[in-house]
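Now for a specimen:

…
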Amino acid sequence: MVDRKALRVRSLLCAALLGIASPFALPVAAARSAAPAATVPRINLAHLDHLYAETAVDGERVGVVHIYSEAPDFRFAIEPREGFTCVDDVARAIVLLSATPRPDARRLHQIEMLTKFVLRMQADNGYFHNFLWGNGRINREYRTSLAELNWWSLRALWGLEAALPHLPAATAARARSAADRLVANLTRDLPVGAAGTTRVAGIDVPTWLPLESGADAGSTALLGLLPHYARTRDPATRALIGRIGEGMLMMQAGDARRFPHGAHLSWRNQWHAWGNAQAYALLRAGKLLGRRDFIDSALREVDHFYPYLLRIGMRSGFTLQGAGDGFTARDAQRFPQIAYGISPMILAATEAWRQTGEERYRAIAGRLATWFTGANDARRPIYDPASGRVLDGINGKGSVNPNSGAESTIEGLFALTALHGTPLP
């Protein structure tokens, strides 16, 4: 069984990206912004460019993003058991840059070089190693870098599919082959043909999702599988999307009146803010596959759970216990709060507004976005539009983590990209 606490530590660790002072300029005829333009800070890729570098892996020049960027001078650091860059963050960077309206030659170069890194990290079994050491050696031994069906392999799929429209022919052919090979693995290895469930704390959860009941990881899988299906129209991919989505529906708890008000649990009987992209992924899957049940489930979370959090204050996580026809919360935590916990909700709210045109979703997205501009427990802006930095989070009342790593930076820029009206690929 995968150590979820270790994965959470990994998520907090994997955090640094590309940079140079250059605003993310939207075209004049861009899509409607999901929040009033005056309230949405401009998008600045300066810190992203600061974190971008090029190195060699197995003799090929590739692009990477540094995981850690530490205040006050934002120099880079390395995690001694893992490495200095990782597929998890590089794939995110590819998605972000691929959402750039009309990427120029510089951005296209970065997308290609970052894609080449991801390609080099694919193992012989079709899955991906995650971390790279500073000497260009792939970390093949540590548990958060094993080539297996895990977060980094799923994130790699999203990055590769996002990059495809922007790659030169030879690199695009490699990326298609790598993505197709990974999807074949997922089709083989996820037990979606079974209808297995297990009971945890009085709650029935599915066992055919990534990491058995990982609806959080399942949402990342969907974000890669959806463009793969749009490209290939492969019936097996469509079936896989459908079954992962159905498993995610089972993970929804509560309703308008009952706690947790339509939240999709993350894993087993736990909800955590980080990686909570279930509603966002279900909205996108529902639209592509014509699954109204997916859309309705996602809208329940946006309609009821997000306003609940906005009313009581953000939460980091909680554990559910079934109680009669309802649920009670145990081990509720308010901190840490990180960009990776806020951005999935903004992505879901903006997608809900994009699909329905209903102004309440635009309003929810705008209210969630104020977390980045100072309406938070620290009473401090988390995003600095002058530098492009997104702080690594809020530790407690009035206390921030002043570092600005890749995960925080990219996830914050994901949210701003959506708020400015540009959907992610």
Observations:
- The first strand starts at residue 52 and ends at 57.
